[in-house]
């Protein structure tokens, strides 16, 4: 094989690999969110006025990342304050989600709808879930 052919082949492989990485960020988290969360928190994360807290610009999500895995896995009972408003509807548990699926959902929420709440690592989610096991 000629040197030019090797360069062309290498370029083609890199182009294919890079184009495959350029799709929707957090796609797995988005699919999981749509299947398990959007019914209540809405497709756009705005929640249901006065009943279901928003995830868009959520003070709870922004400041209490360690609680989010537990809320997703075990649900939420009792009042919860988000953006200065108290919500008191229970959130159903989603125990069938794996630790990695919960991580994907959180990272999708953290980077959707204008949120910029950083990345949560799988290890941090796993540790949070160990602390709140029921």
CATH second-level architecture? Orthogonal Bundle
* Biggest sheet layout: 2 strands, antiparallel
The whole-angstrom Rg is 19 Å
Q: For the record, what CATH class applies?
A: Mainly Alpha
Number of beta-strand segments: 2
Mean pLDDT: 88
In terms of structural class, how would the helical and strand content be classed? mainly alpha
Whole-number tally of structural domains: 1
Task: Report the principal-axis shape.
Answer: globular
The termini sit apart by 62 Å
Would you identify the regions where 5 or more consecutive residues have pLDDT less than 50?
13-22
| CATH topology category name | Cytochrome Bc1 Complex, Chain D, domain 2
- Our count of helices gives 7
Provide the spatial order of strands within the biggest beta sheet: 1-2
CATH homologous superfamily label: Cytochrome c-like domain
Helix content: 40-55%
Order of helices and strands: HHHHHEEHH
Structure characterization notes:
With 134 residues, this protein is mainly alpha-helical. It has a single domain (25-132), classed as Cytochrome Bc1 Complex, Chain D, domain 2 (Orthogonal Bundle). 51% of the residues lie in helices and 4% in strands. Strands 1-2 form a two-stranded antiparallel sheet. A hairpin with a 2-residue loop joins strand 1 (80-82) and strand 2. Helix 5 (68-74) crosses helix 6 (99-110).
Topology summary:
Elements: H1 3-21, H2 27-36, H3 38-41, H4 59-63, H5 68-74, E1 80-82, E2 85-87, H6 99-110, H7 122-132
Antiparallel strand pairs: 1-2
Helix pairs in contact: 2-6, 5-6, 6-7
